[in-house]
Amino acid sequence: MAMSDIEKEIEKEMAREPALRKRMAIEALGTFILTFISAGAIISTSYLFGTGIESLLIIAAATGIALAIAVTIAAGISGGHINPAVTLGFWVTGRITAKHALAYIIAQVIGAVIGAAILFATFPAVFGSINHWGTPMLAQNMSITNAIAIEGVLTFFLVLTVFGTLVDRRNVKVGGLAVGLTQFMAILCGGVFTGAVLNPARAIGPALVSMTFTNWYVWWIGPIFGGILAAVIYDYVFLRGRKIIPL
Fold first, then answer.
1. Is it true that domain 18-238 has CATH number 1.20.1080.10?
2. DSSP states along the chain
3. How confident is the model over 120-138, as pLDDT tens digits?
4. pLDDT tens across 17-59, in order?
5. From the centroid of its chain, how far is CA 100?
6. pLDDT value for 129
7. C-alpha 53 chain-centroid distance
């Protein structure tokens, strides 16, 4: 099927940016950083503190800082998605083609798997196995519906921040700092219930390495729905009529 004029224009714009393989590489690297640090923090805090406020604060800080660094590193090359939910938000608003969106998501999952695999190979198994190598799990008595809603709402905030700070060119550029702070905030709010992962790739990487797939779809359905909704709302309400510049 022939591409539409819009898709051709996007392809032309993206052709001026770094080659797709470079963008895939930086997306994989960024997701590797996020997964290794975030899942590693879960493993190490379980060893030091068990469960408690200390662990929650350390995991939230480590994940937020890792995401801020990863997004900042990747922003100038790929747009700094580091998350399939963000990529799909870019796709539905016409900022990336379907081909490039699929390539980004594949790269993100590969990066997450590599991060989890290195944790598996280097961290003591007796500690890593307790938390399934950082695989997110639901709190006791947490329903699937509520878990999906929590992940969806928190990812809505995350993608809204991405669009407000990285896409909207009117705003002051702060790199990935605001995105990392949003992740930090989200874990403080929902981490005890769902892990507040907000990222399908980050969730599936450790799941594949540890072969732990309990309720795995929660971290795909919630973030994807919330991310797309945020992207569409920001694009339609706040960017309507402005020229689309693919990242």
1. yes
2. -PPPHHHHHHHHHHHTSS-HHHHHHHHHHHHHHHHHHHHHHHHHHHHHT-SSHHHHHHHHHHHHHHHHHHHHHHHHHH----SHHHHHHHHHTTSS-HHHHHHHHHHHHHHHHHHHHHHHHHS-HHHHGGGGGG---PPTT--HHHHHHHHHHHHHHHHHHHIIIII-TTSPP-TTHHHHHHHHHHHHHHHHHH-----HHHHHHHHHHHT--TTTTHHHHHHHHHHHHHHHHIIIIISTTSPP---
3. 999 988 888 888 999 999 9
4. 679 999 999 999 999 999 999 999 999 998 777 777 889 999 9
5. 17
6. 87
7. 24
Is there a contact between 32 and 82 (Cβ–Cβ < 8 Å)? no
User: Would you kindly state where each structural domain of the chain is located, as residue ranges?
Assistant: 18-238
Q: Which two tokens stand for residue 178?
A: 């605001």
Q: Is the pTM of this model over 0.85?
A: yes
Identity of the residue numbered 198: L
Structural tokens at position 6: 């819009």
Q: Cβ contacts of residue 110 below 8 Å, gap of 6+?
A: 28, 31
